[in-house]
Design a protein that fits this description.
This protein is an alpha/beta fold. The protein folds into two domains: 134 residues, 3-Layer(aba) Sandwich (Rossmann fold), CATH 3.40.50.1000; 143 residues, HAD superfamily/HAD-like (Rossmann fold), CATH 3.40.50. 38% of the residues lie in helices and 16% in strands. It is built from 13 helices and ten strands. Strands 3-2-1-4-5-10-9-6-7-8 form a ten-stranded mixed sheet, sandwiched between helices. Helix 7 links the parallel strand 4 and strand 5. The radius of gyration is 19 Å and the shape is globular. The termini are far apart.
Length: 301
């Protein structure tokens, strides 16, 4: 019988995002790929250590039961097929039920996201993330040095999102960048009842909402948070936008410029998504972090 991805939450993930291949990657960048391939082959029976997205993937796969397969995790990697052997061996050794993978040996892998019906792509390669976002799929560049949280919430996935340029478009952020805070506040107050255009991560938030709905009887739960530099009165348009989409978040933090790091430390997300480099660098000290390389903040200077 043919397998279908229809209706599933599909996460595509690079090998460096799932496992700690930083040492191997240094060799790859310092020489040709043949030395890298040989090293991976030499270490075939040595399971790789968990990478920054490993805890998230482990939790997501717990939404699958014998009767319900709601989540599919697929390896999507620039690795060669031989190196892919170690990726699958490492997944098996860590009891991760990952069965599918695409290995492109240096070719940008985002071309396969449409066939995978992917709701998210996590990669350590910034070029692949940019290309994926340009193709219309949610994607983030993981910070391999991110702190991997202990499983203090073993039956709950916690995901935190920035607002502008992540869940929402960067329409308002463009006003802020070009005209300043007062213009931004006036813009958002004048358009308070007009929903913001969707950002690149709206499809992921929708997919998480669907997963929560179809898995009501599962012991695993999802908790989401909006963590934004917006403050009153600009907060209202953000909330009204989510209401217009028919999607609720569990927590909302309107910080008005306060550092996000301390609030993320309290929320303890399994992953945090933000578009700005400075926010991501600070957040990586307390939580797994991915930078969404979209919007005006990520345009070439």
């Amino acid at each position: 019988m043919a397998f279908s991805l229809e209706g599933k939450l599909v996460v595509a993930i690079s090998s460096r995002a799932l496992f700690d291949f930083e040492e191997e990657n240094q060799l790859f960048e310092a020489s040709d790929d043949s030395a890298y391939m040989q090293l991976q082959l030499d270490r075939l029976d040595s399971p790789a250590k968990p990478g920054v997205a490993y805890p998230l993937v482990k939790k997501l796969l717990r939404f699958n039961t014998k009767s319900e397969q709601n989540v599919e995790v697929v390896i999507l990697s620039r690795n060669d097929p031989v190196s892919g052997l170690r990726v699958f061996r490492s997944a098996k050794s860590n009891h991760l039920a990952i069965e599918r993978g695409v290995f492109t040996r240096g070719r940008p892998p985002y071309h396969y996201l449409k066939s995978l019906q992917a709701n998210l792509f996590l990669s350590a390669n910034d070029d692949d993330v940019r290309a994926t976002l340009a193709a219309g799929f949610p994607a983030a560049m993981v910070f391999p040095q991110s702190r991997q949280l202990a499983e203090s919430h073993p039956n709950e996935i916690r995901i935190a999102f920035d607002g502008d340029a992540v869940l929402f478009s960067d329409e308002a952020e463009q006003v802020f960048q070009s005209e300043g805070l007062d213009a931004f506040v006036a813009h958002e107050s004048n358009k308070v009842e007009t929903p913001l255009p969707p950002g690149p991560f709206k499809p992921l938030l929708e997919a998480l909402h669907r997963l929560q709905s179809v898995s009501a009887s599962n012991e695993m739960k999802i908790r989401t948070a909006l963590v934004t530099a917006r403050s009153a009165p600009a907060h209202e348009r953000a909330i009204r936008t989510l209401m217009a989409w028919g999607i609720a978040v569990d927590e909302a933090m309107f910080l008005g410029g306060l550092p996000k790091k301390d609030f993320l430390k309290e929320f303890e997300p399994d992953f945090f998504f933000d578009d700005q480099t400075g926010h991501c660098e600070l957040a990586a000290d307390v939580a797994p972090t991915g930078q969404v390389l979209s919007g005006v903040a990520n345009q070439p200077k």
